[in-house]
Amino acid sequence: MHDVTLTRRTRLTREQQRRQTRERLLSSAQEIFEARGYAESSLEEIAERAGYTRKAVYSNFSGKAELLLEIVERRFQSIVDRIESIVSQGTAAERQAIDIGSVFSEYLTRERAWEELFHEFCSVASRDEEIGSRFRSCYRDLKQALVRLVEDETKSRGAELALPAERLVLGICALFSGVSFEKLVDPTETDDRVFGEMLGLIVTSAVKPSAEP
Description:
Elements: H1 14-36, H2 43-50, H3 54-60, H4 64-87, H5 93-110, H6 112-127, H7 129-156, E1 159-161, H8 165-185, H9 194-206, E2 207-209
Antiparallel strand pairs: 1-2
């Protein structure tokens, strides 16, 4: 006779079940948002694809806008994480600018559906005060994280900025928004290198050696 070991499936706690439900709903929402766009997506389809009811969506999120807001927030954080990884390598400022530009270029090239979705949601947020307020808060958090990275890196290199870090980051974000819009309107004329090239010029002009004491 052989010993038979019975394995019992570990029962999830209520909090684990809640997190699992949220993750499945977010994954489903992102797939449907990218396929159909924000306006044409429905909570019913999102819930059905995730294997839940509409009630499960409202038990975890206030609605479609909150689902997308959380997806946006996570995407912003992934950008910050990748930039932090590049900065931590300690390469020359110009090399870092090129590498960071590549991160954004890849974002524009490989994630066209997400870029279209993001622009659509920006339009929604501009017309809805409640959604817009939460979205702006999320976007400002991203910019503030980038400001901290710029300030820390500038200090570690013993350099100075020709303008406040907040203004530099604002200009870089505005540049990226403009390039991403150009990419949507005329993708064949907007190549993947343009953002990195412009970013390199901005960084070179904005960073100056520290003044001697």
